[in-house]
Amino acid sequence: GTNPIAIQTGATDVSAQVTKLKYLNADAVAIAPLYMDSATFALEMKRQGLNMPVLSSMTMVQPAFIEISKSSAEGWIGSSTFWPDSPDATTQNFISRFEKAAKEITPHAPFPGYADPNIYDAIMITAQIMRANKITPETPLEKARELIREGWQNVRDYKGIAGTVSILPNGAGDLKVWPIELKGGQFQAMQ
Question: How far apart are the first and last CA of the chain?
Answer without folding.
Answer: 28
